[in-house]
Amino acid sequence: MTNSLSPQTRAAIINFDPLQPHALSVTDFCRSIKISRSVFYKIRGRAVHESTAALHPRSRAPKTPARKYDAGVINELVKIRKQLKADGWDYGPRSIYYEASQQEKFPGGKVPSVATIARLLSSVGHVDAAPRKRPKSSYIPFVRATVMSLWQLDAFEYRLAGGEVVTVYQLLDDASRFDVGTVAYSRAENSADAKDVLERAITAYGPPKEVLSDNSLAFNQLRAGRIGSVEIFLASKGTMPISGLPGKPTTQGKNERSHQTLLRFLDAHQPATLEQLQGRISRFRDHYNNRRPHQSLDHATPRTAWDLLEHTPATEPIPLSVLEAKASYYTQVRARRQGDLDRAALTISKTGEILPDENAQDRAADQSVVEITRANRQVYYQGFHVSLPTPYADRQFYRTITDDAFLLTDPATGEIVFSFPLPMVALNVRGRYVASYSVQGVQAAYSTKQWDLKRDHYEDQFAKRHEEQPDVMATR
């Protein structure tokens, strides 16, 4: 508004004296020339400090004009990007910025910002198209606060250029993302090699308090009711072996993500022999730990985080009786769940048919097994088709129906992975199809974030109905 005022109007504002006899008030004066009081006082204030300069608007030119980068800067950024890509490293704007800042002399003397690098590369077509993703700020990170509090162990198969398939084990510290042990072996995944990886890392860095792995028998056999050689070794060092829930690889998400970085590096160099692979892994660990900035660490390197964070290693050996108690507990849970199958008061077939009670005790074990496929992610209850979340696809479960609950149980661990109370009450029913997240009291161990959000929404709806119609809801 103030920039559009003419010098005559500005002069009238500067020369106006509200103390003169019969003078207008400031409000009436502003109304007469169609300006606001704030504009009036702004121009009067400029006149006090700038004198006649207040008769003219200030320049709108930015105090720090946008910097224009010549072709030399763009060419250098493209060169760095190509080199990172060829070497098998991340080659996004942040990685390029970090590499450029390490150079002794960058064209123009100043490295562009991360956003500017992205804009410059996009202008010359050096950007890989990628689907829109959720912002990282929307995720809730789960990370230990201290180094040595938890290590994550996982393995994957890798095919060498010569055709041989080997197994690569990765061992990461949860808090610092420090690679404490990545080693390749010619054999398939097994306990002996897993123990060797852990033994090397513990010799180099000391024992952590816990080691997290999946439920592979090569890593952790406690859920199967046994104690393996890896668990015995860890307990002797004071380390508790723990495992994620079956079908929940996100529990070991940090390790799963690190596989991508390592695989990209190995594919870029294509080792042909196990010896070459070991050499590539050694180079990878040095770069990953000491040079590559990690976004989850505020762009510090894992080595920096490892050195700065507090260390809380294991101190005393763990008695084997503790592991025996855990294995026994899992055995009892599995036996109890299996026993519940025989005590079921009512059994529903896959087609929804109610089986007579007298046959329930005599039926074969496979009659209570439900196979969920990707094309048919449903279970059946009294003719209703109850949908299941995506992670249940391509798996088998024991189905149990008691007087007060519908249960799906994991055959390997005996854990209840899906349940809802009976009688079934649901809000989202279309004909014979029932959305599982809309069932009152439903619980699912293998769910998705969207499924959880929808379930929470319907739980709120049930709570409101209980408040508005308590008598009706109590009789359902």
Automatic annotation (TrEMBL):
GO terms for biological process: DNA integration. InterPro entries: Homeodomain-like_sf, Integrase_cat-core, RNaseH-like_sf, RNaseH_sf. GO terms for molecular function: nucleic acid binding. Pfam families: rve, rve_3. Residues 137-310 form the Integrase catalytic domain. PANTHER family: TRANSPOSASE, TRANSPOSASE RV3428C-RELATED. The lineage of its organism: Bacteria, Bacillati, Actinomycetota, Actinomycetes, Micrococcales. This is IS481 family transposase.
